[in-house]
């Protein structure tokens, strides 16, 4: 098992944001967490990547307990988090943003190779290589955030709302890239409000509601669940 | 003038303050600016030599301030803290070099160890050793201050760290004033090398030690040249560091968004310590050069240069490295021109008047950009 999350209880002050969340990601999978605003999807990702701490339970990555590890070490182990709202370093150039994604690595030729790979997935980034990240359009910023997340060569890529604020064409593009990344061997943990899109590329899914996992199963099962249909797919 | 609009929840009609009288303020600053230009221009024409000498002494001050201002601006850039103890780190740098020279003769080690090398080379290497020692001690001091006093407050409201910085500053000043530390007295500073001065009057001539240069000549010293060289090298080094090295880019990344930086695998705490260390190293260097230039030190030596360097950083746009440099040069000139054409005691008043004017007209400084709202 690549990622094993068990019984997370996370609080923001008095707010009990995650109430015993447990799930897992197998190697090679795309797993989606779907849920409404405030259900705790981002909180879950932030807890896994070490930005938040759970009071109970544990997060195991590659068999290691990472619950108490600082965020920068978790990246080194191979879990990369593309945060909500992209969080591009606006004053840094595209190139510098990508280099920061490779901060944990030292081999210059390998880093260059990874950068070339990002540019072959997102040719538009190459055109803007020396432009400040903040001057990119929303779609380009999402590409940059995704590429930056790939630069650490993760075994698990966690993506928080990659479709947010993007046009339908760009959403298609981003999701096909996510599928490509997965096909190349990276497991993916996806958090999405665009549930139908996310389910269409995922292997399995979990439904989060007010800090609890209320439903889990294969993406197909979830997509066909009548409650999910009415609540998240708008059918 | 830019108006900062704050979203307001209130439904009361918003009163726009000052708009009707804004032109009075602007007119005042325009008149003030014209007056300064007029006075300086008149003096430049009536006595260009005096002007040049005042300008040179302003350069010397400005380049020293530049070395201090960098520390303020870099630390502010990354932790949004005005590190008021920075000027006192500068003072400690001066004292370390004092002890290294007077107690341990560190500046003479090359000649003591290798008597055969040329004395000039020995003095240069010896002086550089003194400077490096001061820089190292300042680095250790600043990193300790950061760990002990600021790091525990990283998630506290900004004002808490600011007040702590003022506390640390006072602590260093008055701890240094203890008799068994640096003592509260002014101490004549023994230089690791001799000051050589030149004057320009139909060519460049060396000033014979113990005599005055002839009237109507422009004078400058090797100290000025060393300070300018050191300050420019520091600038170039910093530009290189921040633009071309991994740690430098990580500093910029962390100063923009610490959480995102951590997600990249950047150890933000180390980056912050590194930033304090770099700033302290330059303050230490500045402290030694300042002591060599003005040849008298005491435990509160850092207060005014520190505050003026802070004003310089604000003037240039706090957080901006070139801004700190430009701001410091302007501050040096403002101070020197005040001493030359108004009166010496006015120098500090003018420095802080500049702070007030900057905060009134352009709070973001020359190179500063308005702070962006982050979602």
The averaged pLDDT of chain A comes out at: 95
In total, the number of strands of chain B is 5
The number of E-state strands of chain A comes to 10
CATH architecture of chain A: 3-Layer(aba) Sandwich
- How large is the count of helical segments of chain A? 10
Q: SSE order of chain A in H/E notation? A: EEEHEEHEHHHHEHEHEEHH
Order of helices and strands of chain B: HHHHHHEEEEHHHHEHHH
Q: In terms of per-residue confidence, which ranges of chain B show pLDDT below 50 for 5 or more consecutive residues?
A: 1-12
C-alpha geometry of chain A: globular
Domains counted in the coordinates of chain A: how many? 1
Content-based structural category of chain B = mainly alpha
User: What's the CATH class of chain A, please?
Assistant: Alpha Beta
What does this structure look like?
The complex is a heterodimer of chains A (235) and B (375). In chain A, a hairpin with a 2-residue loop joins strand 9 and strand 10 (212-218). Chain A has a single domain (3-233), classed as P-loop containing nucleotide triphosphate hydrolases (Rossmann fold). By secondary structure, chain A is an alpha/beta fold. Chain A contains 10 helices and 10 strands. In chain A, the strands form 2 sheets. Chain A has a 6-stranded mixed beta sheet, with helices on both faces. In chain A, strands 2-1-4-5 form a 4-stranded antiparallel beta sheet, with helices on one face. With 375 residues, chain B is mainly alpha-helical. Helices cover 66% and strands 4% of the residues of chain B. Chain B is built from 13 helices and 5 strands. In chain B, the strands form 2 sheets. Chain B has a 3-stranded antiparallel beta sheet with strand order 3-2-4. In chain B, strands 1-5 form a two-stranded antiparallel ribbon. Chain B starts with 21 loop residues before the first helix and ends in a 14-residue tail after the last helix.
């Amino acid at each position: 098992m690549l990622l094993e999350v068990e019984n997370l209880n996370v609080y923001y002050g008095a707010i009990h944001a995650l109430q015993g969340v447990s799930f897992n990601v197998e190697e090679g999978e795309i797993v989606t967490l779907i849920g409404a605003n405030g259900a705790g999807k981002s909180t879950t990702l932030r807890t896994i990547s070490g930005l938040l701490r759970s009071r109970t339970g544990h997060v195991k990555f590659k068999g290691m307990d990472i619950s108490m590890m600082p965020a920068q070490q978790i990246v080194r182990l191979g879990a990369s988090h593309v945060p909500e709202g992209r969080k591009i370093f606006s004053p840094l150039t595209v190139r510098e943003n990508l280099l920061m994604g490779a901060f944990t690595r030292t081999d210059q030729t390998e880093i260059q190779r990874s950068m070339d790979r990002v540019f072959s997935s997102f040719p538009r980034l190459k055109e803007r290589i020396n432009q400040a990240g903040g001057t990119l359009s929303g779609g380009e910023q999402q590409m940059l955030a995704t590429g930056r997340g790939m630069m650490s060569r993760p075994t698990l890529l966690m993506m928080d709302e990659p479709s947010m604020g993007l046009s339908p064409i760009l959403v298609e593009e981003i999701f096909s890239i996510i599928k490509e990344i997965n096909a190349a061997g990276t497991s993916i943990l996806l958090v999405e409000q665009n549930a139908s899109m996310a389910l269409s590329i995922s292997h399995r899914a979990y439904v989060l509601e007010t800090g609890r996992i209320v439903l889990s199963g294969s993406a197909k099962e979830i997509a066909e669940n009548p409650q999910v249909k009415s609540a998240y797919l708008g059918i | 003038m830019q108006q900062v609009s704050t979203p307001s929840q209130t439904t009361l009609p918003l009163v726009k303050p000052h708009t009707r009288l804004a032109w009075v303020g602007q007119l005042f600053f325009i008149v003030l600016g014209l007056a300064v230009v007029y006075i300086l221009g008149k003096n430049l024409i009536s006595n260009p030599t005096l002007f040049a000498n005042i300008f040179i002494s302003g350069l010397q001050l400005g380049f020293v301030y530049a070395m201090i201002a960098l520390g303020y601006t870099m630390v502010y850039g990354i932790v949004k803290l005005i590190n008021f103890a920075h000027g006192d780190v500068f003072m400690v740098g001066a004292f370390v070099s004092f002890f290294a020279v007077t107690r341990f003769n560190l500046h003479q080690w090359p000649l003591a160890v290798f008597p055969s090398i040329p004395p000039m080379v020995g003095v240069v290497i010896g002086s550089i050793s003194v400077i490096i020692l001061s820089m190292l001690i300042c680095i250790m001091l600043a990193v300790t201050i950061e760990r002990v006093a600021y790091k525990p407050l990283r998630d506290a409201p900004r004002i808490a760290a600011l007040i702590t910085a003022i506390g640390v500053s006072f602590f260093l000043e008055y701890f240094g004033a203890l008799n068994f530390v640096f003592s509260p007295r002014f101490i004549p500073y023994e230089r690791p090398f001799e000051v050589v001065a030149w004057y320009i009057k139909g060519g460049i001539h060396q000033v014979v030690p113990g005599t005055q240069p002839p009237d109507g000549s422009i004078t400058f010293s090797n100290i000025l040249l060393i300070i300018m060289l050191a300050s420019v090298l520091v600038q170039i080094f910093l530009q290189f560091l921040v633009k071309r090295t991994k740690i430098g880019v990580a500093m910029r990344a962390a100063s923009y968004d610490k959480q995102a930086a951590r997600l990249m695998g950047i150890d933000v705490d180390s980056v912050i310590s590194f930033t304090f260390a770099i700033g302290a190293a330059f303050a230490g260097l500045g402290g030694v050069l300042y002591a060599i230039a003005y040849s008298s030190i005491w435990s509160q030596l850092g207060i005014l240069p520190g505050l003026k360097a802070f004003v310089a950083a604000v003037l240039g746009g706090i957080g901006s490295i070139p801004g700190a440099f430009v701001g410091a040069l302007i501050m040096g000139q403002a101070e020197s021109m005040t001493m030359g054409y108004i009166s010496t005691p006015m120098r500090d008043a003018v420095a802080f008047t500049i702070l007030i004017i900057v905060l009134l007209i352009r709070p973001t400084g020359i190179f500063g950009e308005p702070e962006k709202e982050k979602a």
